[in-house]
Design goal:
alpha/beta; binds adenosine-5'-triphosphate; 6-stranded mixed beta sheet; globular; binds magnesium ion; 20 strands
């Protein structure tokens, strides 16, 4: 582990300002050949700013970047930088109108290689990743996960000596993430240096030998991961013992819900009917009575009724999904990416058309694909792709957060003072620990995690009677995640709203009263008693139950329902 010769990448005294924000202050780090170095920090700590400097996209105000002892190429010399560094950015850099193969080889077209060969090569690589994406597919038709795989593959085929991965697994499901770790190990074994950025600290412990912690633009620690516990890392990131403790409380999966003030815990949700899903019911329908431990939703009114939903969406089909969400209840929906979890969320929120079935809110039918009607009826929506649907980049933080309630904030002449907006946005943004330079800062300038908080704030401001949230904590740091989930749970307990939480992030499900598992577009099973067992959830998402579970944990190879279907 002793460095021999100059580091592959050496950063010293790097400063970067954006107006009044000091995004990086005297940052220094070095990455050696064969090393996987973690870079962690809270939302807005400066990680992506450093990535854009290391990728040659922006110039530091001061400080130096050296590759193998040589000064880095000048900013804008794309070929010069690409020899050294390949980056998977936090925000997609995929060109939607180009095909998968074209994107993979974009700016990297090998000489003397025909399109035919490139397509074949792309098909082989995709197969290695367990994805059947035809190389000719235009990228605009891909899901968020598929796009991310294309980005990763594009970076890895370049053959650069350093690879930077800025939250590469944010949109990847478990198996794809494992494949990525495998690739990272192969790369480091062959001498490539990897800079790995993630809010999933367990990943950092799994694949990084060392970790650099950024806080408010400064490096506060550089240490071997083996010398740190998770709690130490969180404390270093948060820099405040009190907050670190509360973030830690949220850490263990499967523990009791971490949310103070969340819906009264302990009671299971309404007893689910198990596989097959609840049958259809009328608008005035009540939750079935339960034997023991009746929770808040026991006799509550049905807020959301979904019956026989069928969708042939390419990103995940649904073949007849039915479910109920009661007032004050948080219902989780989880499954593998292709299982239709996000499709269900989009369909319920009116963001996507569907082929058959019904969505009713308080008994009133919501027409398919009409987000406007759904929103007016009281369905709040935290979309999966926040950059496309979640906020307006050039509008300010306060304007984005209060966009859904503009008419309520206006006076009787329809005039809205900016001060009113800022005042209405302030409690929401502070609650979610949103970091910005002020209420007027354009949302497009915020860090990735803070943009996600804006989309959640916007949904909460509207006081919806149902919130549909798709992977709401994606990209959000460990401490803010707890606050964000806490506010969703609070909405359910305090306003009698229902929450439909569509997520493959198992720790998100800790706030749920019930969790429905989808397998290949159908309700496979339902967990009705929190706390939910993490391993059981994982096994269920693979479409396995009963005896197959013990086989799976006995170390035997097991096939998933996905594979069995092939
Ligand atoms: N183009 C910009 N204009 C103004 N401020 C910016 C710009 N880009 C970044 N910032 C600010 O710089 C700070 C660091 O942002 P950065 O994106 O590097 O954070 P991050 O550590 O990647 O966070 P996250 O975990 O949320 O992705 C933030 O306060 C952000 O608002
Ligand atoms: Mg970032």
């Amino acid at each position: 582990m002793t460095p021999s010769g100059p580091a592959l990448v050496d950063v010293a005294g790097v400063e970067k300002r954006f107006g009044t924000t000091r995004a990086l202050r005297g940052v220094g780090l070095s990455l050696r050949s064969g090393q996987c170095l973690g870079l962690v920090g809270r939302n807005g700590a400066g990680k992506s700013t450093l990535v854009s400097i290391l990728s040659g996209l922006s110039e530091p105000d001061a400080g130096t970047v050296r590759f193998d002892g040589q000064p880095a190429p000048r900013v804008g010399d794309i070929d010069g930088w690409q020899m050294w560094i390949a980056t998977v950015f936090q925000h997609s850099m995929i060109v939607p109108d180009l095909s998968v193969a074209e994107n993979v080889f974009l700016g990297n077209t090998p000489r003397l290689v025909s399109w035919h060969q490139m397509r074949r090569r792309t098909r082989d690589i995709m197969r290695e990743w367990g994805l059947r994406i035809a190389p000719e597919t235009p990228c605009r038709d891909l899901s968020v996960e598929q796009l991310q795989v294309v980005e990763i593959v594009r970076a890895l085929v370049r053959g650069a000596r350093c690879v930077i991965l800025d939250e590469p697994t944010a949109a990847l499901e478990r198996q794809a993430a494992q494949r990525l770790f495998e690739r990272v190990r192969q790369l480091t074994a062959s001498g490539v240096g990897v800079l790995y950025i993630s809010h999933h600290l367990e990943e950092v412990f799994e694949i990084c030998q060392d970790v650099v912690v950024l806080r408010d633009g400064e490096v506060v620690a550089t240490a071997p991961t083996a010398s740190l516990r998770r709690d130490d890392l969180v404390a270093l990131m948060v820099g405040d013992v009190g907050q670190a403790t509360s973030a830690r409380a949220a850490a263990p999966a499967g523990a009791a819900r971490p949310v103070p003030g969340g819906p009264a815990s302990g009671g299971p949700g309404p007893g689910g009917p198990g596989p097959g899903g609840p049958g259809p019911g009328g608008p005035a329908e009540q939750a079935p009575a339960r034997e023991a431990g009746a929770g808040p939703a026991a006799r509550a009114e049905v807020v959301l009724a979904v019956d026989g939903l069928v969708s042939d969406a390419a990103r995940g089909r649904l073949s007849g999904v039915s479910l109920r969400v009661h007032a004050g209840e948080v219902v989780g929906v989880t499954g593998l990416l292709s299982a239709g979890v996000a499709t269900l969320g989009r369909a319920v929120a009116g963001a996507e058309d569907y082929a058959a079935g019904q969505v009713r809110l308080h008994g009133r039918r919501i027409p398919p694909g009409r987000r406007d009607v759904a929103q007016r009826a009281g369905i709040g929506y935290v979309p999966e792709d926040r950059r496309a649907e979640g906020f307006v980049a050039r509008l300010g933080v306060a304007e984005n957060a209060t966009m859904t309630i503009t008419s309520q904030l206006s006076d009787r002449f329809g005039v809205l003072r900016p001060g009113h907006r800022a005042a209405a946005a302030a409690p929401l943004t502070s609650r979610l620990s949103l970091v910005s330079s002020g209420p007027g800062q354009p949302a497009g300038e915020l860090s990735g995690g803070n943009q996600q908080k804006i989309t959640v704030a916007r949904t909460l401001a509207h006081h919806p009677s149902l919130i549909v949230a798709i992977t709401p904590t994606r990209g959000v740091d460990v401490a803010a995640k707890e606050l964000l989930l806490g506010s969703l749970a609070d909405v359910a307990s305090s306003s009698e709203a229902g929450v439909l939480l569509c997520s493959d992030e198992l720790s998100d499900l800790e706030i749920c009263d019930r969790v429905i598992v989808l397998v290949r577009g159908e309700v496979f099973t339902e967990f009705t008693r929190p706390p939910f067992d993490r391993d059981e959830l994982i096994v269920a998402t693979e479409g396995l139950t009963g005896t197959t579970i013990s086989a799976a944990f006995g170390g035997t190879e097991y096939g998933s329902a996905e594979e069995a279907a092939e």
